[in-house]
Design brief:
CATH class of the largest domain: Alpha Beta
Number of helices: 19
Strand order of the largest sheet: 1-2-3-4-6-9
Structural class: alpha/beta
Number of domains: 3
Distance between the termini: 22 Å
Bound molecules: ligand L2SNVXEC
Strand content: 15-25%
CATH topology of the largest domain: TIM Barrel
Shape: globular
Length: 725
């Protein structure tokens, strides 16, 4: 992709509003090298070892080194804002940002998160997330990241990191790697083949490194039999050599098992560094002993300290950085980004008889426990570890406390009062009494949910991963009861990921299904914006919604995971196995229509291996544009709207077996009724390459690439080819 507009924005936002500049790695590393030369061995040990859980103001803390002005480093969750903050913005989860397919909103979200973290004195904010990627729809932490397509996740990682770091805060790409489920996450091994590793799971981390991410967090699981945080192949080989990552690798919290195994195999910082969860301290004094006994070399210790300091210099934290104050009010106007993402990520799945947008109804009814705020308090469940009231995010360490919460009913009530609409509410999931609430209403809006999170909390029997893909709280029966009494039923789904909708879709009277995802604190406002047509819905699914769970072909496993599905997850699997999805990857309706025309291709793509020098992100030529595809998008309907044309490629026959199509470009175009605009997709060398396991390189295969541009992965409107000789 790399749309021109995004390039301009990227250049502009490398310097944030407060003037913090992201340095070149070369400058940051040379400053770090000079600083390391002044340090004692104990200083270096202090820089790379956590002081312990709850032994400082943040979830991760190291000791200061005053001789070089190095502070007590504050490392804090997480991927949607400042965990444990008192007055911070609870940004939308990653999966909602992905559903917007809007790189400007993604970048702004990152920039605002970074600004809040910096204002709190946080040096390193633990996000964004590309692991889990989301190979299993039930994976508990999928919602923290950007969905199972590596290209979409890669773009989202890049935009988020550049946004965050432009605000002067170190980002941390996590969890590296193959941490695809919560079940037994800290005992299991993810056993994956080399090509799948490169083309799916490593792909978005390459984007992160290319975007100059300061740090990477290694994960709890094993990879091909060796603990991720002690795995030389993935940390030293893939990350530091192949991707030329200059920053530091920190452990997930107590993810290491031995001192020398982690120190000698690529990990650079141990977190949190105490007897957290009953573990023994493995770095700090133990690392010092290991260096003194030559089990870990002095050069390796120097390298660790240099990498940590280089990340600090990279984002200019050595001067003027605020003191730690996680209790500060740092929200500014950032709720505007939350509302925009929550609104523009809403995916309209079904809209019969133009029931939407609502047109000043005389009477509406609202149903469901999820239509109102959690009656026990919006932050009453630690780390959002319950599903009571409206759902705005999943649960676990990747959460933040809400500063306020506008539930669906709150915003609908405000709108109804303004319109003089009568509104009634049934705020339970009980089917018994709903007919009285909804009968006679012009529209009945029923809100249902599905939740998941991190495995240290179990909610309603779900130990992180979801046990199934059904709506919670008898959502199917609730919809049936509502639609049985009102033939103008609108179903709003708040969910961490795909839900099987077959029962709901086959219920007479269900006129519309609005996929409202995970909207965080601006839930109701965003929903009203779409339901009442203040904007046309413009979100597109960042994953496939199947007809039945077995159609995905993947699910969390009890023992080691052999990743036998290889490259074929989500739509890649549905396409290969010729399975009809209920709603395909990339799908989303609008209140207007778009036509596609006039596809043009220019290309200088050459078949063969990547040959460029290795730089952060991999061989430099992988990132060069080798083909450009354009087409004209026209809003042929009656109202303004935004469309997301998507570009998919099919590799030529000379390539080894590959997914039938793969996303390799998208752009979001806002158009007034009747207006047209050119969509431009710049394809980089990597976008046309496969990973050759024998040559250990990316190869552009020779022959004819099929190029399809369309409104979803199954609604392809324009076709062309790119020739590579
Ligand atoms: O927060 C830093 C990284 O931590 C990992 O998750 C940990 C989480 O932050 C922590 O709150 C949780 O603690 C619980 C503990 O595991 C459990 O035994 C105890 O009963 O309750 C504690 C909570 O009160 O542990 C999590 C690890 O197990 C994340 O994986 C990582 O993404 C975070 O950045």
């Amino acid at each position: 992709m790399l749309i021109q507009k995004s390039l301009l924005l990227a250049a502009a936002s490398l310097v944030a509003a407060d003037g913090a500049a992201v340095r070149d790695w070369s400058e940051a590393v040379s400053k770090a090298t000079a600083a390391v030369a002044k340090l004692s061995q104990q200083d270096k040990i202090n820089i790379v070892s956590g002081v312990g859980w709850n032994k400082g103001p943040c979830v991760g803390n190291t000791a200061p080194v005053s001789s070089i002005g190095y502070p007590q480093l504050c490392i804090q969750d997480g991927p949607l804002g400042v965990r444990y903050g008192s007055s911070v913005t609870a940004f939308t989860p990653g999966i909602m940002a992905a559903a917007t397919w809007d790189i400007d909103l993604m970048r702004q979200r990152g920039q605002y998160m970074g600004a809040e973290a910096k204002a709190c004195g946080i040096h390193n904010l633990l996000g964004p997330v590309a692991g889990p990627l989301g190979k299993s729809a039930q994976g508990g932490r999928n919602w923290e990241g950007f969905g199972p397509d590596p290209y979409l996740t890669g773009i989202a990682m890049s935009e988020t990191i550049e946004g965050m770091q432009s605000s002067g805060v170190q980002a941390c790409a996590k969890h590296f790697i193959m941490n695809e489920q919560e079940l037994n996450r800290d005992t299991m091994s993810s056993n994956v083949d080399d090509r799948t590793m490169h083309e799916l799971y490593l792909w978005p981390f390459a984007d992160a490194v290319k975007a100059k991410v300061a740090s990477v967090m290694c994960s709890y699981n094993k990879v091909n039999g060796s603990w991720a945080c002690e795995n030389s192949h993935i940390q030293q080989g893939l990350l530091k050599e192949e991707l030329a990552f200059p920053g530091f690798v920190m452990s997930d919290w107590n993810a290491i098992h031995t001192t020398t195994g982690s120190a000698n195999n690529g990990m650079d910082m141990d977190m949190p560094g105490s007897d957290y969860n009953g573990r023994v301290v493995l770095w700090g004094p133990q690392l010092n002993n290991a260096v003194n006994s030559n089990q870990v070399s002095k050069a390796r210790l120097d390298e660790m300290a240099r990498r940590v300091l280089a990340a600090w210099y990279l984002v200019g934290q050595e001067s003027g950085f605020p003191n730690i104050n996680i209790k500060a009010n740092v929200q500014g106007n950032h709720k505007e980004n939350v509302r925009a993402v929550a609104r523009d990520g809403i995916v309209l799945l079904k809209n019969e008889n133009n029931i939407l947008p609502l047109k000043k109804p005389k009477k509406i009814a609202v149903v469901g426990s999820a239509a109102v705020k959690n009656p026990k308090g919006i932050n009453s469940c630690t780390d959002r570890g319950c599903n009571e009231g409206a759902l705005g995010m999943g649960w676990g360490s990747g959460t933040a406390d809400y500063p306020y919460f506008i539930a669906p009913y709150d915003a609908l009530q405000t709108r109804a009062q303004a319109d003089g609409t009568q509104i009634s509410l049934s705020n339970t999931d009980s089917t018994g009494s709903v007919s009285g609430t909804v009968s006679g209403a012009d529209a009945a809006i029923v809100v249902i949910t599905s939740d998941s999170g991190e495995g240290y909390i179990t909610v309603e029997g779900h130990a992180g991963d979801r046990n199934n893909l059904d709506p919670w709280h008898n959502g199917n029966q609730l919809v049936q009861a509502v639609a049985g009494a009102n033939k103008n039923t609108i179903v709003v789904v708040h969910s961490v990921g795909p839900v099987i909708l077959e029962t709901i879709l086959s219920t007479p009277g269900v006129q519309a299904v609005v996929w409202a995802g995970l909207p965080s604190q601006e839930s109701g406002n965003a929903l009203v914006d779409v339901l009442y047509g203040l904007v046309s819905p413009s979100g597109k699914l960042p994953y496939t919604i199947a007809e039945k769970p077995a159609d995905y072909g993947t699910a969390p496993v009890r023992g080691n995971d052999m990743f036998t599905e290889g490259l074929y997850i989500d739509y890649r699997h549905f396409d290969k196995a010729n399975i009809k999805p209920r709603y395909e990857f990339g799908f989303g309706l609008s209140y207007t229509n778009f036509t596609y025309a006039d596809i043009k291709v220019t290309s200088n793509a050459k078949a063969g291996p990547a040959t460029g020098d290795v730089a952060p992100g991999g061989r430099a030529d992988l990132w060069e544009t080798v083909a450009t595809v354009t087409c004209t998008i026209t809003n042929s309907g009656a109202v303004e709207g935004a469309e997301v044309p998507q570009l998919y490629i099919t590799l030529p026959a000379s390539a080894p077996a590959a997914p039938p199509k793969q996303l390799r470009g998208f752009t979001k175009i806002k158009l007034a009724a009747g207006a047209s605009e050119t969509a431009t997709f710049n394809l980089r060398r990597r976008d046309l390459s496969y990973w050759d396991t024998a040559k250990q390189n990316w190869i552009v295969p020779s022959g004819s690439f099929e190029v399809n541009v369309g409104a979803s992965s199954r609604d392809l409107r324009l076709k062309s080819t790119i020739e590579a000789a």
